[in-house]
Amino acid sequence: MTDGDRDVEKEYSHEENIRKLERLVASMKAGEPFEIQVAGERIYVPVRATFSIEHERSEGEEELEFQFRWSDGD
Q1: Which residue in 6, 17, 55, 70 has a CA-CA distance of 20 to 30 Å to 43?
Q2: In tens digits, what is the pLDDT along the chain, a chain of 74 residues?
Q3: Could you tell me how far CA 12 lies from the centroid of its own chain?
Q4: In a domain, 24, yes or no
Q5: 14, 27, 31, 47, 55 from 44: Cα distances, Å
Q6: Which of 24, 66, 74 is nearest to 49 (CA)?
Q7: Does residue 34 sit within a domain?
Q8: 52/44 Cα distance (integer angstroms)
Q9: How many domains does the chain have?
Q10: CA nearest 53: which of 62, 61, 41, 44?
Q11: Looking at the domain assignment, is residue 59 inside a domain?
């Protein structure tokens, strides 16, 4: 990783997850960027970001990720 790289995973309570997802849906419906703070850094997800869902299963554990991806130069 370079100096600008970052890989952070943050867990939230059930209620916090609901609030964040509700804000995300409202932003998407309005066609506006989504703003979120993760581990002290404010992130701006542009409307043009692509969305994917990833599912992993391994040794009795499962993981489901909702992922947005974009480039600064887009």
Answers
A1: 55
A2: 456 788 988 899 999 999 999 999 999 999 999 999 988 899 999 999 999 999 999 999 999 999 999 998 65
A3: 13
A4: yes
A5: 23, 11, 13, 9, 24
A6: 74
A7: yes
A8: 17
A9: 1
A10: 62
A11: yes
